[in-house]
Amino acid sequence: MKRSLRLPFSFLILVAVFSVLSFRAAVQDSRRRVRRPEVAPPANATLLRLAAVESGEAELRKDVDDLLDGTFPSGHRGVAGWRLRTHLDWRQENHLEVLRRNEPRFPHRLRGPKDYRALPDFRRPLRDWFRRRRFHPGVMSELVELIKRPIDRHHGRPDTKTERYGSCAVVGNSGILLNNDHGGLIDGHDLVIRLNNARVSGYNHKVGSKTGLSFVNSNILHLCARRPGCFCHPYGETVPIVMYICQPVHFLDYAVCNSSHKAPLLITDVRFDMLCARIVKYYSLKTFVDTTGKPPGEWTKVHDEKMFHYSSGMQAVMLALGICDQVSVFGFGKSAEAKHHYHTNQKAELDLHDYEAEYALYRDLVEQPQVIPFLKDFGFKVPPVVFYH
Asked: Helix (H, G, I), strand (E, B), or coil: what is residue 329?
């Protein structure tokens, strides 16, 4: 080879060798980055601390103690408006003959001896509920035991102990459901969860017709308790019902209705309720700070802390995360043209819910579940979640 060509040729060889080595190093580094576990950014410590503050604890304890002592409210105007009376006064006012002449002031319409026999049974679940009242995010891993196994036993299915449902559809009540024909897609899931007795008839092609679990808040059950036989089965008498308690007095509704139900009437664990409340409050605080630029301490000027609460939909989604391997969510969200509920004419949202904060939580469930506070601290793995809008 001519001397004039040796230097350029040697230079090309060196460049080629360097390129190969650089490429191999880049590939190895890329593989290391892929294998490296995701590290969630630290949650805001101030927001976590404020989210843990629970107001109204003293009032709640007093209400529970009064109910356990046999002192019943004669009206249903909320915690601050209860006028307490003795058990004897309450029973006299709700005597069957009196009920035929006057509208009862107590939130139950007891219609027969069966209802009266069920009355003492409310104390045990109320006592157990309040005794378990402590913050424990690990309850997410107990939901199969608390919810799914009783439902499986009711249907006569084999007891798999830890096995979850393969796929679940949580069907919300937003008017945006009317924009698509998702009925067939919804019914294709192993378990379909519906909220607060929303109508299905006439909307089947939009919302489906299959229901495996009815999720209600205790305000809905309170309305059911006024009906003969505590009828609360728009999806059929064999469909299990899961409810969360809004007020301790609703344990009376539970006692009356539980004796009439052919399917399980389950109460969500209070530890699960507390977890949902803390997560939503954290996202509400974060949304407030991010959108207003104000310090989190001013959050209480916008939200009534004693009335602030998560929505039924949010808790139903959280429930599905604990009992399902895959979760699909329908009818969550809003638009200017859509009604608040697809089956009613309600347009306005409830002030006690912060829907924007809940939407922020839903985005994280889909895109970055590792950043959701409280869940990640106990090693709970969020299953795949898809929201259909």
From this structure: strand
pLDDT tens profile 89-134: 333 333 333 333 333 334 444 555 555 566 677 888 999 999 999 9
DSSP string of 172-235, one letter each residue: ---GGGGGS--HHHHHTSSEEEEETT---TT-HHHH-S--SEEEEEHHHHHHHTTSGGG---TT
282 vs 97: CA distance, rounded Å: 50
Assess contact for 134 and 266: CB atoms under 8 A.
no
Q: What are the pLDDT digits (tens) for 139-170?
A: 999 999 999 999 999 888 888 778 999 999 99
Token code pair at residue 362: 């839903």
Q: How far apart are CA 8 and CA 112, in angstroms?
A: 104
| Closest C-alpha among 290, 332, 273 to residue 129 | 273
Q: Which of 196, 222, 194, 218 is nearest to 208 (CA)?
A: 194
- Please give the full DSSP string across 256-273, using - where no structure is assigned: HHHTT-SS-EEE--HHHH
Quote the pTM value: 0.80
123-131 and 57-68 helices cross at what angle (nearest 10)? 150
**Rounded distance, CA 134 to CA 137, Å?**
10
Domains, the chain: 45-54+139-388 (3.90.1480)
Pairing of strands 385-388, 327-330: parallel
- 44: buried, middle or exposed (CB in 10 Å: 19+, 13-18, 0-12)? middle
- Residue 221, amino acid: L
Give the helix/strand (H/E) hosting 387. strand 385-388
Taking only Cα atoms into account, the Rg of the chain, rounded to an integer number of angstroms, comes to 27
Q: By CB neighbour count within 10 A (0-12 exposed, 13-18 middle, 19+ buried), where does 329 fall? A: buried
